[in-house]
Design a protein that fits this description.
This protein has 364 residues and is an alpha/beta fold. The chain has helices at 3-26, 66-88, 94-100, 114-128, 199-207, 210-213, 227-240, 252-262, 272-275, 287-292, 302-312, 320-332, 348-360; strands at 32-36, 43-46, 51-54, 58-62, 92-93, 137-138, 145-147, 150-156, 159-164, 174-175, 183-188, 192-196, 216-220, 244-247, 281-284, 298-299, 334-335. Residues 192-358 form the Topoisomerase 6 subunit A/Spo11 TOPRIM domain.
Amino acid sequence: MSTKLNEERAREQLIDLAAEFYDQFAGGEIPHMTLPTRTKSNIEYDPDSGVWVYGDRTSTRSANSVRGARKLLKAVYTIEFLADQLDQGRSSTLRELYYLSESWDNEEAHFSDQDESNQMIEDLEIVSEVTREDFHMRPEESGATLMGPLKLREQTRRGEREIHCQKDVGEGGYQIPNNPDTIEFLDADIDFVLCVETGGMRDRLIENGFDEQYNCLVVHLKGQPARATRRITKRLHDELDLPVVVFCDGDPWSYRIYGSVAYGSIKSAHLSEHLATPEARYVGIQPSDIVEYDLPTDPLADSDINALESELTDPRFQTDYWEEQIELQLDIGKKAEQQSLAANGLDFVTETYLPERLDQMGVL
């Protein structure tokens, strides 16, 4: 579907939602909005799409309480703002929406903090079945980048531009736009996609020429990956039929970074089919690597232990591989960063660790 058609559909869905509230009023019904419960216990595996989605549990935002009425009032004001924004061909950030609400003529419609305005946009995505990108809402810049043998065409306000993600960019790479669906892949001499958590490791791979030596597209996740990063990763897999591997630190928070790429996140489970790449595989750092390579480590903090135990009950991590690795980590009581591989030399990660792991996985 074209960007223009997406925008038209987004506006229609918003207006329909506002009209539904009006019809509830007119019919003598208390206005309400029903949403899936966004908790770990309400996500389930969808075998058809291979991703994790919300289950059947729901919660209702209803005007039968003062708190519920305020939430619906804020929803109506937000719908009006988004529809006007689409009419004008403008866009705004999630942060700007929070501040913009201060100018609305009803104080009860003002958001108390950005978490509340962020959740409102997520709620409207779910009930309208339209993504925030089509609402022209964007986060603050994530700075995530691509580096590798990929030529693409990007739609910008200044027209189309063609970019090669090695030849036409500096050492920093090509910055992923907020809406990667404006990108067209033109030519790709890529064997696999390597998603990397940290900037230091991303820079090490590029400096050592890993992208050139192995025809690899390096995607810098920049910590917990933004939706745009997960979306372009999924498109690279689905449209170019490329293997995707994820390279993170060896701790429970980094496993969740991998999980958000492969399984989708609880917060955005309504978009799992749009964002998640269930075929993505974890290349490391593994707890077994800590033992095998005798890597420098830090002890697990209480919060790490709690997070690992939580992952053992998380349906997205209930596989033989993850249960074995997490149990091992709890047993050894240690965690390690990607950069700990440098204890074996600056070239160890590109000459030994990654080639061996990727060969074991059948990627190379």
